[in-house]
Structures are given as C-alpha cells and as structure tokens.
Amino acid sequence: MEKINVVIYGCGVMGRKIAEAILDKESFEIVGAIDIAPEIIGKDLGEILETPGELGITIQEDSDGLFQRVNAQAAILTTTSHLKSVLPQINQCVKAGLNVISTSEELSYPWERVPDLAKEIDDLAKGHGVTVVGTGINPGFLMDTLPIFLTSPCLKVNSIKVTRMMNSAKRRIPFQKKVGTGLTQKEFRDKIENGVITGHVGLLESINMIASGLHWTLDEAIELPPDPVITDKEIKTAVGTVKPGEVIGLTSIAFGRKNGKKVITLEFNANAGVEEEYDEIIIDGLPSLRQKIIGGVHGDIGTVAVTINTIPRAVEASPGLIVMKDLPPVSATL
Ligand SMILES: NC(=O)c1ccc[n+]([C@@H]2O[C@H](COP(=O)([O-])OP(=O)(O)OC[C@H]3O[C@@H](n4cnc5c(N)ncnc54)[C@H](OP(=O)(O)O)[C@@H]3O)[C@@H](O)[C@H]2O)c1
After folding, report:
1. CA 18 to ligand 1 centroid distance, Å
2. Which end of the chain is more exposed for a tag (fewer CB within 10 A), N or C?
3. Is 31 domain-assigned?
4. CA dihedral defined by 223, 225, 226, 228, rounded to 10 degrees?
5. Residue 325: what pLDDT?
6. Average pLDDT, the chain
7. What pLDDT shows up at residue 1?
8. Which atom of ligand 1 is nearest to 102's Cα?
C-alpha cells in the first residue's frame, strides 16, 4: 500500500493526538510538523506526544520552507476554529499543492455564512488541483453527515432533531475551558460575550449542511446564546475543583426554520455532571427513525478518527472546497 505523506499543521492537543494515532497506522506517514507556539518550535514532534519518542520530525514555524523541503500530499490543519484565522494557513497549503483536512469548525460548511470566502477557497483549490475539507466529530459527522445519511431510507422528512449529551470532564483541557468549566456565571457570560471562550462552535454549519443535504431552503438558522450549567455539588475536573454555584459546562441550542416551522433542532450538552452520555438522532418522516448511540461517541477520539479517515477521501476527491456530506462515506482506515 502506498502511504499518504502528511504534515501536521498545528501541534496542540488535537494535532498531537492525531499524530500519535497516525503513528499506529500503515496508510500514512508524517513528514513534517508546524506550529507557532514558542515552547514547542524546534522540538522533535515525538517529544511532545503522550508516549514520547524521537521521530526525527522537528516542529517548524516556517511552513513555506517546510513545504519546499518535504514531499507531502496532505496537511492536517488543527490550529483554530474561525475561518478568517485559518484562511492564511489554508492558502499556504493549497499553494504548495497540499490537500487540506482541517478541524476548523467554520470550514465544515462555509457556503451559507461566508459564501465569498468559500468561493475564494474553492477557486484557489481548483486552481491548484487539491481538495480542502473541514471535518471532525461535530461539526463534520454526528450532527450533520450522519443525520443526512440516516435519511437514506426515508421517502419524506418533516424534521430532524439531534441531541448530544456528553460529560465534558472526559474531554481534552482546551475543550473543558471553552465550555466554561470552573467559571462563575458572570465570568461565563462576560467571556462568551467578549469571545474569550467560544463555547461550542459549529451548530450553524451543521444546520446549513443538513439543509443543503436535504435540498431545503431555510427561512432562517438561529443559534441561541449558550446557557451555563451550574453545579450544586463540588466536582473535580482536570481544570480544577468546581464549587457549588459555579459553571460545569453548557447547553447550546440552534434551529433551522422552513415555511415558519422548526425543521432542524440541534442540542449540544457538555458538562462535567452528565451521567448518561448519548448521541441521538430523531427523524420525523416516512418512516420516522430514532437512532441513539448509547454512551455517545467520545468527542476527542471521534475527531481524531474522523479526521484521519477523511484523508484518503480528500486526496481522491475532485479538486475544490468540499463538505463532508459530498464525500463518499468515510470509513476506518488501516
Ligand atoms: N470539528 C470538530 O469536531 C473539532 C473537534 C475538536 C477540535 N476542533 C477544533 O480544532 C482546533 C484545534 O483544537 P485543539 O484542542 O488542538 O487546540 P489547541 O490545543 O489550542 O491547539 C492549536 C495549536 O495550533 C497552534 N496555532 C495557532 N495558530 C497557528 C498558526 N497560525 N500557525 C501554526 N500553528 C498555530 C496553537 O499555538 P498557540 O497555542 O501558540 O496559539 C496550538 O499549538 C480548535 O479550533 C478546535 O475547536 C474541532
């Protein structure tokens, strides 16, 4: 089997987890690593993994220089969430002839919210013969690609509701921080308002992807401000002990309306007090369907897997900006 050479662009928590998982796979080879964090530039990528070991891959800040030296087919881009901030990195990779597989939530379906940027990326990617795709567990799979796929046996779909219920204490530290763990209610509201923490990003992208997948024209897609979840007992988490009255996570709700009716509802619950984790998709239609993934899909493992498993699909796909619903179904890789 010919390996696909990849560069890890962004060596934070997800980039490291993806690198570690790729080392166990026969389908891929890591040929470079990029990051801007001064504390890791110049280190061997292997040194910062959970099971440290020399890999002979030095983390570089100079991406253009690295792209000239290595022969890579794809970049795994795990830097930031918002499209405006990842755009320069996408452009660099595309101009260097690399397919881009990114966990940037806003890249998962930019066609509705930032159509001009989407078109710019699409044109550039087509011009350089490569594919750009935004993916991950959510957005990317559980609240968009999977529900769309589940409508395959439906003659008619009236509405879709997707609920994720997860214990955030089991997730990586940046995730626990971005859902407000350990903050007071006031700090939570201030930090969300000022963009210091993002909460969950991507519900609107998922709604827009579902609508596009079902050829629905929505009147509107609305995301409500996230609601903090407050604990009534002390809870120990990786970001510290949270006292009664403080925030242990959040609930985010978004919906899409068509002809005045709510036809898509997404409910994202992530807090350190959740006992029963699950992911549930309810389709009201002909026939109606209800799928519950008992125990839920672990968000970090799921993101690592979906991202890696999307690499071959992206490399094989026609050039351009593509969204997950338009790729052939992604499956586990060797
Ligand atoms: N779609 C999904 O399902 C999904 C799932 C998980 C994560 N995500 C998203 O994936 C992204 C990465 O998550 P994470 O937890 O790994 O975050 P993280 O730990 O903060 O890692 C990001 C890394 O990228 C570096 N970086 C930032 N800007 C860069 C640039 N211009 N060039 C090179 N490196 C840069 C950061 O350096 P500094 O620390 O110095 O800024 C950091 O080392 C986040 O946006 C997250 O929300 C999406």
Report:
1. 12
2. N
3. yes
4. -160
5. 98
6. 97
7. 79
8. 10
